[in-house]
Amino acid sequence: MRIALVCPYAWDDAGGVQVHVRALGERLRARGHEVVGFAPARGRPADPWVRRIGRPVGITYNASSAPIDPRPWSAIEMRRSLERFGPDVVHVHEPFAPSTGLWAILTARAPVVATFHSGASRSRAFDLAAPLIRRLARRLAARVAVSEAAERFAGSRLGGVFERIPNGVDVGAWSTASPRRDLVDGPAILFCGRLDPRKGFRVAVDAFARLAAERPDLRLVVAGDGPERVALDGLPVDVRTRVTTLGRMPNEELPPVHAACAVYAGCAVGGESFGVVLVEAMAAGLPVVASDIPGYREVVRADVDGLLVAPGDPGALATGLGRVLDDAELAGRLEAAGRERALTFDWSTVVDRLEDVYERATAGPTATMGP
User: What gap in Å lies between CA 235 and CA 246, rounded to an integer?
Assistant: First the structure.
């Protein structure tokens, strides 16, 4: 099958949707499909099967920065690119973000499958555009939501039937990684993600400071970057020296980092549709302490696969992390349960389900698409 994968976000930026689309493309290619990806990018994509459509600009959305290309003339490039490739099916991600996915919906002549990732609690722009978006949604041959939170956000505005298929994770790559011995020489808390307000980095820093005061060997490892990095400046000097900052890292370089740490702090304060970072941590054998928010609750079952604590509360996060660090039996139980839970999100299962969606989309009546 000839499959076009369309990502609205900058291909060369870190982000969960980019990681998902890249991994999906590689697995579809390994199964013999002819796949071309389309996304805005700052430079030439390193992946040979990906084509650049436009250049991204940062747009504030859902308490974060979305690197999209909202310039409508990119739709012309998108149409020409799809015509050259001639896909059997077009799979767009975050289809109504004003970027590459929207241009694909407007110009594609093949059936369009749309995956909704956003778990935003509200969006004024989406609500204002809802009447137009509902009309465009008629062009979709299938609607996929990565979680109940994503389905609730999109479904309440668009209506229609959604199939719930979670994000995928290469569980084997995370579960077999050898730890980076150069990172830490004692127990370490791991924070991984963009350092912006929605991800709760300040909460993690505050929680670490509380724990570090009584645990002189405790470390904090930070994989990610962003404006909230300044939160580290408020730490006492002796505590700041126990923080290792790695900056942005390619996803494939993260498993050894996870393997070197003792516990994962997933402290986003809201707006998460799923929680790939939690699945990756569990696959790596890290006990997880995460915010009790929609999206995360669909990955971590409280006190079974991990601990859930009040979002935005550094004291609650510190208490949860401290329990794991101080109780080897609890840590071992959460590690075993987390590894088992992660297997349910393995790519082998996710790709099977998406292939079935593609088959049904191409077998059914095709909506009128394109000019």
Answer: 18
- 86-97 residue pLDDT tens: 999 999 999 988
Domains located in the chain, CATH noted: 2-168+346-363 (3.40.50.2000), 173-344 (3.40.50.2000)
Question: What are the backbone dihedrals phi and psi of residue 222, each rounded to the nearest 5 degrees, phi first?
Answer: -120, 115
DSSP letter, residue 205: H
Token reading at 197: 């307000």
C-alpha to C-alpha distance for 257 and 278, rounded to whole angstroms = 14
The helix or strand, by DSSP H or E, that contains position 11, with its residue range, turns out to be none
In this prediction the pTM is: 0.83
Of 120-134, 146-160, 249-263, 315-329, which range is least confident? 120-134
Question: Residue 289, SS3?
Answer: strand
Distance of CA 320 to the CA centre of its chain: 24
